Amino acid sequence: MDFxxxxxxxxxxxxxxxxxxxxxxxxxxxVSGQAPYAYERHDVAAGQLVGYPLGATIAKGRIxxxxxxxxxxAPGVAAVVTTLDVxxxxxxxxxxxxxxxxxxxxxxxxxxxxxxxxxxxxxxGAANLIEVRYAEEDAEFDLEAALERLQNLGExxxxxxxxxxxxxxxxxTLDAVYRTSAQSHAMMEPHASIVDWSDGKAMTVWLxxxxxAWTRQALAxxxxxxxxxxxLESPYVGGGFGGKLWLRADTVLAALGSRAAGRxxxxxxxxxxxxxxxxxxxxxxxxxxIAAGEDGRITAFDHAAVSHTLxxxxxxxxxxxxxxxxxxxxxxxxxxxxxxxxxxxADMRAPGEASGLAALEIAMDEMAEKLDMDPVEFRILNDTxxxxxxxxxxxxxxxxxxxxxxxxxxxxxEARNRTPGGRREGAxxxxxxxxxxxxxxxxxxxxxxxxxxxxxxxxxxxxxxxxTGSYTIIAQTAAETMGLAMExxxxxxxxxxxxxxxxxxxxxxxxxxxxxVYAACLALQKKIAAQLKVGAQLKAEELRxxxxxxxxxxxxxxxxxxxxxxxxxxxxxxxFGDFKEGLQIGTFAxxxxxxxxHAYTGETRLRRMLAVCDAGRILNPITARSQVLGGMTMxxxxxxxxxxxxxxxxxFFTNHDLAGYxxxxHADIPEQEVVFLETPDAASTPLKAxxxxxxxxxxVPAAIANAVYNATxxxxxxxxxxxxxxxxxxxxxxxxS
Amino acid sequence: MRAFRYARAxxxxxxxxxxxxxxxxxxxxxxxxxxxxxxxxxxxxxxIDVTGTGLDTIAPTxxxxxxxxxxxxxxxxxxxxxxxxxxxxxxxxxVSGASGQLRNKATTGGNLLQRTRCAYFYDTAMPCNKRSxxxxxxxxxxxxxxxxxxxxxxxxxxxxxxxSDMAVALRALDAEVETLLPDGRTRRFTLDAFYPLPGDSxxxxxxxxxxxxxTSVVLPAPVGGRQTxxxxxxxxxxxxxxxxxxxxxxxxxxxxxxxxxxAPRPWxxxxxxxxxxxxxxAVMEKLLEGARPTRDNAYKLRLAERTLAxxxxxx
Amino acid sequence: MxxxxxxxxxxxxxxxxxxxxxxCTLHVNGTRHDLTLDNRTTLLDALREHLALTxxxxxxxxxxxxxxxVAVNGTRINACLTLAVMHDGDEITTIEGHGTPESLDAxxxxxxxxxxxxCGYCTPGQICSATAxxxxxxxxxxSHVTENLSTAIDLTDAEIxxxxxxxxxxxGAYANILKAIHQVAEAHS
Lengths: 737, 315, 189
Hints:
By secondary structure, chain A is an alpha+beta fold.
C-alpha cells in the first residue's frame, strides 16, 4: 500500500478500539514471569552450553599473545574461541568497531574471547584463566583536550542569512557553552543471545534486539553467509533505548562458540562489561549563541557542537533540531564528531535531540531572563509554522504553542517562583522551570502478514515490542480494521520469518508498524471480497467489517464463516511516499518542573513533572503515557545523576556498573503528569499517528536545569547537575546574602 | 568466580578454627563477598558459612549498652526498638545504606568488613595496591576519575574510601568490635584500632588476624543528645555516600561528629568534637586538616562543612 | 601452580577450577527440589538454570538492580548475591509462586491495571518487592524516610518510593508502580 498523500477521513477518525485505553495484551505473561526473554529459552534448543565473554583491557593497540591452555583444561569447558583464532570478521554497516577477530583492539572491553562450558560457573571461571598480552598504542580520549587542540567546531550543516552580522547588531545576545556527559542505555535486560550454529550452516538466533531485519543482514555480512540461512527470534526485549538496534558481541560470540562446540550456545553480556563493550551516547560540548531584538524576537541562532566517536562513526549530532525549532532568519549549525578511542558511541533514545535540547533549552531560558520575559511567552513569540530555513516548507502540524499554554495553565506557572533563589521551605530552595521539546516524526516502510481462520486473526510482523506496547497497538489496529474484538486477535512479533517491519527505534516504530498492519488488513479485505460469491463482484471498499461481521450490498456474513474453515492469508506493507519531503513532520512538547534544592548541600529533588505533548493520534493513551513517563524518568537521570566517567589516560568508562552509573531510582521520581493534545496528523500515516517514545526525554533535562537555576540562582551548564557543581555557588550566594 | 569448598560452622569456635586454613574466608550475608568473588577480587578456596553460629542476637550489656551479634542483619538492627530509642543515629545510618533487599541479608560483621567501591579496585585490569600490593594505584594516575574517592587519611598507595554508613554511626557512638581468635582468645577493638589507615599497605584493611572472627559489636551506654545521620549522594536512594555526617549534639552544644565518604575509615577526631560549639567551619578545620583532595573531589571539603552547617542550623 | 601475575591474578586451571559441589534442598513455591550444585551457583542461577524458573531476572548479577528479588523464608533478598547451598531447607517464593497468567495475584493484577511496567524485565522483582514492602511497613521496619522511629509507619508515597528504590526500572514505570502498590494496599485495608 502506498501512502502518497495525506489521509482523508477514515475509520480511525471514528474508532472503537484505536486511540482507546487498552491494557497491554502481553501483560499477563510479563507480570507472572512467563514472558520468554532471550537468555531464558531452555525449550528452544536442546543441549545448550554457556558462553562467557572476555573483554580487552586496553583501549587501543594489538594483542601480542593469548594463551587459553589453562582455560581449555578447566572442567566442563567445551571450547574456547579467541580473537586470534578467527580472521577479522567483516564489519557490518551498523558497526564502527569490529565485533571480533584479529589482533587489533579498538576499544576497552572489546570482546576478545569466549569460553564455552556446560555451566555459567565453569565458563566464567575458565574465562579468567586466559592469558593476554598487549602492545598498547597511544590514543586520545579527552574530548575537552581534543577540542582545545583542534579548535574545530565543524563545518556548518546549515548557514542561512548572516549570523555574524545579526549577532553584532542585536541588542540582546547570549554566548554560552554547555556540556552533556556520555550516557549508557542501561536497559535492564543485558544483551543476550542463544545461537544454534552447530553445523556451521543454518544459524538460528534467539536474542534481544530491536531491529530483526537489520540484524539479520548484519549477521550475514559479519560472517559472510547468506541471510536466508539465518533465522532470528526476539519476541520479548527487556529494554533497548537504541542499545539493541545493532548486532552486538553477545550474538557473535554465541555463534562462534556454537560452531566451535557443535552445540547451541547462550551468551549474556555481564553487566560490568556492557558499558564499555556495547554502545553509548557520546558526550557533547556545545556553544550556543542567540541574538534577539528588544521585542524578544530571535534574529539569529548559532549552535556548534562536538561529540566523540571511534574513527568512522558519527557521534551525537546535537545541533539538528536547532535548524527548525524556533523562528529566526539568520541561523547556522555545525557538528563535529571528533575521533577518540573511547568505546563506540551510537544512537540512544532521541539521538541528537536529547543532548541538543538539553543545551538549547537552557539557552532559551537564559535569553528570556536577559529579555526579562516569561520563558513561556518568549517561546510562543518565537514559534514558527514553517521551516525557518525554507519558509516554503510548512510543518504538517505544529501545536507547540498549545502545549505551552496548556502546560502553563495546568502547572500553575503564574504562581511560580519569579526570583532565582527567592523561595525557601526550611533548608530547601524551591524552583520552577520549563522547556520546549521537538522531535521529528519519521516513518519507515513496514510490512505485516495476517491470517484469518474461524473468525480469529493472527498478525505476524518482525516488529519488536521493547516495552513500547507494540503488541497491544498492533492488536488494536487489526481489531479496528477487521471489525474484531481484541480477544480475537493474536499478535506475533520479532521473528525473521515474518514480513519486514520498521522495527523499533527513532520514534518511528509505533506509527510505521501499525500502518503496515493496516495495509495487510486491507489486503485481507480484498481477498475476502474476492471470495464472496454474491453475484456481482464486490470491492473491498464496499464492505464494512463490524463486530465480527462483514456487511455490504447483499452481504451479511460472520467473519468466522469466511473461507470455509480454510485459513486466509494476506500480506502487504506500507510504503511512505516522497510527498513527506515537502513537509516538516514533527512532535512537540512543553515540560514543566518543580524542584527542591538543598540550600546547603545542593542535593536536587524533583517535586513535580508535567508534560504536554503534541504527537499525532495517540494509539493507546495507556502505553503512550508510559512511554512519555519513561522518557521523563530517563531524562531525570540524565539531568541529575547519569554520566559515564572517562579515565582520560586509559580510555575507558570507569563507572561501568549499575552502582557507579546511577540511573534514577524510584525515590528520585515525583508525581508525573502527561497530557496529550488531540492532534491527529493526516500527513503522517493512515492512522494519523506519530511516535512519542523519544519526545518524552527531549527538553526535560533543560527544564530541570532551569528549575535548579530558578531555585538557587546558580546557573549550571554542565550535566549531570550534581552537588559538586552546585555547592560552591550556593556557598558564594550564602556568603553574599 | 574460583571454585571453593563450602562448609557450615555450627558455632563461633568451629568457625574460627576452620578459618585458619589458608585461603579460607567467612561468608555471612555474602552481599559484598560474592560480588567480589564474581570479579575474582576475592578468591577464597574455602568458604565457611557462619550464618548458623547463633551470633544474631542483640542483648543488653551489664554496662547499660547493647551487644550486637555479628550476624544480626542490617534490617533487624535498624528495626530493633532499643536501637531506635537509644541509638537512633545507628538506625538512621543503617537505613540510609544499600537497599531493603540488601539490608535484609547483610550482617553487622559483614558491613564492617565491606571493601571499598573505588572503581579501580573493582576493575581487575587496573593496578591497585589493595588487590595486589606494589602494583600501583590507578586512581592516582593522570586522567583518573576520582570524584567519589577519599580526601583525608589516604596515602600515596591508596585513596579509596570505606563505603559503610553503619560504621560511621558506630564510630560516633564509640562502639567496639569483639572478636574470637582460632586459639580461643577474644579481642576488643575501637573502630580506629580496627581500621588501620592505608599508609603503604592498603591491602591491610582491618586488625583481624588470620582466622579471627568478628563476634559482636558493643555499644556503650546511650549518650543521648540529638542524633542525626545525613547522607549526601547523587540520587535519593540506593547509592553510596559522597559525604555523610553523623552528628550527636548535646543540649550544651557539645557533641561528636564523624564523617563517611571522605576517608579509608569512618572519620572522627577529638579536636574536631571539641570545636563543635564553635560551629561547622571550626569543626571541619580540625576534622579535615591535612586533607589532600584531587581536582575532582575537592568539593567534598566544602560539602562536608555545609552538610554539618545544615544540621547545626536546624536546632 | 603458576605464580600470580602482576595484578595478583592466578592463571592456573587446577587452582581455579576444582570441582566442588554440595547437596542442597530448596523448597520453591511449595515444591521440594533436591539438587547437587556447584558451590559457586547463586540462588538466582539455581532457580533460572537448574529449575528453569526464569521469572526472577538477572539484570546485573551484582546486587545493583533488584531484578532478581525473591522472598526467602518470607524476607525479600537479591537472589544473585547469595549461594544456593546456603539455602538448604529454605522456603523460597518467586514470581511463579505469586500467580500464573491465568490466575494472577492482586499485586500482579494491579501492575497490569496501572501499566506499571513496559519491557517487563524488572517486573517480577518489582512485584516481589512490592509485596514484601507492604509487610515490612506493617511490621514497622523503618526506612530512610521514616520520620519518627518510635511510632507506627504510615503508608505514604515517600515510604513506598524509598522502599522500592532497590528495584531499578529503566523504562521508568515508577509512577505507575506506586499506583499499583497503593491499589493493593487500599484493597487490603
